[in-house]
Amino acid sequence: GDLFAAPAPTIERATAPLPVALRAEPQGDLFAAAAAETHAASGPTLEQLELRVHEVRARAVHGLALVPVVFGEEPRHAALVGLALAARDGTAAYLPLAHEGGPNFGIDQVRGWLAPVFADPLVPKVAPDLKSAGHTLRAHGIELEGGTFDLHVASFVCDPERDHSLERLAADVLGVSLASIEPAQVRGRSRTGPGATPVAHAAAAGERMAAACWPLEAALTKQLEAREQWKLYSALEQPLIEVLSRMERAGIALDVPVLKTMSEDASREIATLETKLHEIAGEPINLASGQQLGRVLFEKLGLPAKKKTKTGWSTDSEVLDELALVHEFPRLLLEWRALAKLRSTYLDALPLAVDPADGRVHTTFEQTGAATGRLSSWNPNLQNIPMRTPLGRAIRRAFVAAPGHVLVGADYSQIELRVMAHLSKDPQLIEAFLGGEDIHASTARRIFKIEGDVPGELRGRAKVVNFGVMYGMGARSLAQQMGIELKEAKEFIESYFSVYAGVRAFLDRTVEEARERGYVETLLGRRRWLPALRHGGGLERSMAERAAINTPIQGSAADLVKQAMLNVQNALRLGSRARLLLQVHDELLLECPEAEASFVTEMVRREMEGCYPLSVPLTVSAGTGATWFDVH
């Protein structure tokens, strides 16, 4: 019952004594303008700072915490303003490298002192963000090996919903206030970047940041163990950091002229659509103006208005999708919007993301974004390249292999549905997958009682229901997505659950167990806490129920993809010159010499299919090609 259910996680305060550097709170506002001048004048000399550095280096054999202070969003190109270090006993130092007015060390000096320690895999390294730290140091000629604990990732595994910043963790877990190394405000002049902060301030704040890493490592380790998440962190998430780091460094080559040609073609099509839309409207209008579109749609054309916003009638995609069924103008407008977004977001933006040093695009993989454990990518986002339209798919032609190489693409077939079959133990689903059936056609046959070939329309409807069930989609959402009446959508769902009774039992059981325990769990043990199941209001509780249904399925699939990435990277260490480049949802993309194509393709398929023993086979389609488009 409720009395014995596990409570939602709370942030446990660390009880171990704090390092000396953290016991004294910073006095006053470190970054006030008046204090800036005082401290700048009485700040430490380079000789004093160097002594601190050598003291930390001498004690680093037991571990080194590091906090790079950078200016710039992209770690591979960010300016290294300073570097905060701390030995495991709390001895800390700060190395200024690019502070306005100095004093600063030269990067060559720093390399000479610290490069051997940073490159030593036997010296454990702790950082708030090991991947970013590695990129920044490498860009300045310093290799980082031996990363053993990432505070952000560990905090995320403990509780994906909380703030994982170093400042917030120090406050919540240690009860310590850390001052950020932010730009100072000096005599009314706003300066940009941490380099504007006087060295005295940066040293005081930086040493506290680095010193905080060790008690945070100890506290987060205890939290991981108490919540039975240590294995997930140490065996999956921590090793994945290095894999993602390699992928980000590798990047992928981009054929810019291909995108330029596509952009020109798209511009011509956009202009044609604009002409047609203006003709139907009977006047030139601003297609980006909701007010002007509302006037044309609902006043001139007399189409039924659906919902209002503060500024007038809504013209969002949901409204236009419905109106497109009855009139050409909203249909063409949707085409125009999709094409314009494709051009601005990908065709014109991707060439700007190319690194001129190597002609490749280097995305950043986010490991601490989605509560389900799914990876995301940004700068640029390569996981949202549209695949539903021919032009969207054609964008993949611009991602190419290096000369003498090919791309190898390997994609899981319906991994989430296979996970659902495994978790639900539904005999009909398991039978379909064991028999190698097209699962959507199989579902259509069972729901609609069809013998033989399944019409494409009915297979499409069955596909919507298959995936909708996994995401906790109700009859109303299903009706909107399929363009059918609510009554018919309810009948579809009932028919589905009458065929797959094991799935219904699994979903009901999952929500009920989550309500009792306070969390749901993936196959590899990742937990997602859902306190709203027991304490939330109607909408909150409904959202939590959908999360309870979705997380074990989508989260398990995400964990299996991560495990496959580790397996593939371990196999590559045995001598192949192939490199993992991208992970996009259920797909891995590699680059290898042409001579290795056959070997790498089979190796990747084997490692992905064998990453976890489900009760149904994990199947992978794999292929090679000169471009990303060609591999499937």
From TrEMBL:
<protein>
    <recommendedName>
        <fullName>DNA polymerase I</fullName>
        <ecNumber>2.7.7.7</ecNumber>
    </recommendedName>
</protein>
<keyword id="KW-0235">DNA replication</keyword>
<keyword id="KW-0227">DNA damage</keyword>
<dbReference type="InterPro" id="IPR012337">
    <property type="entry name" value="RNaseH-like_sf"/>
</dbReference>
<keyword id="KW-0239">DNA-directed DNA polymerase</keyword>
<dbReference type="GO" id="GO:0003887">
    <property type="term" value="F:DNA-directed DNA polymerase activity"/>
</dbReference>
<dbReference type="GO" id="GO:0006261">
    <property type="term" value="P:DNA-templated DNA replication"/>
</dbReference>
<dbReference type="Pfam" id="PF00476">
    <property type="entry name" value="DNA_pol_A"/>
</dbReference>
<comment type="similarity">
    <text>Belongs to the DNA polymerase type-A family.</text>
</comment>
<keyword id="KW-0378">Hydrolase</keyword>
<keyword id="KW-0540">Nuclease</keyword>
<dbReference type="InterPro" id="IPR018320">
    <property type="entry name" value="DNA_polymerase_1"/>
</dbReference>
<dbReference type="GO" id="GO:0003677">
    <property type="term" value="F:DNA binding"/>
</dbReference>
<dbReference type="Pfam" id="PF01612">
    <property type="entry name" value="DNA_pol_A_exo1"/>
</dbReference>
<dbReference type="InterPro" id="IPR043502">
    <property type="entry name" value="DNA/RNA_pol_sf"/>
</dbReference>
<feature type="domain" description="DNA-directed DNA polymerase family A palm">
    <location>
        <begin position="392"/>
        <end position="596"/>
    </location>
</feature>
<keyword id="KW-0808">Transferase</keyword>
<dbReference type="InterPro" id="IPR019760">
    <property type="entry name" value="DNA-dir_DNA_pol_A_CS"/>
</dbReference>
<dbReference type="InterPro" id="IPR036397">
    <property type="entry name" value="RNaseH_sf"/>
</dbReference>
<dbReference type="GO" id="GO:0006302">
    <property type="term" value="P:double-strand break repair"/>
</dbReference>
<feature type="domain" description="3'-5' exonuclease">
    <location>
        <begin position="40"/>
        <end position="225"/>
    </location>
</feature>
<keyword id="KW-0234">DNA repair</keyword>
<keyword id="KW-0269">Exonuclease</keyword>
<dbReference type="InterPro" id="IPR002562">
    <property type="entry name" value="3'-5'_exonuclease_dom"/>
</dbReference>
<dbReference type="GO" id="GO:0008408">
    <property type="term" value="F:3'-5' exonuclease activity"/>
</dbReference>
<keyword id="KW-0548">Nucleotidyltransferase</keyword>
<dbReference type="InterPro" id="IPR001098">
    <property type="entry name" value="DNA-dir_DNA_pol_A_palm_dom"/>
</dbReference>
<dbReference type="InterPro" id="IPR002298">
    <property type="entry name" value="DNA_polymerase_A"/>
</dbReference>
<keyword id="KW-0238">DNA-binding</keyword>
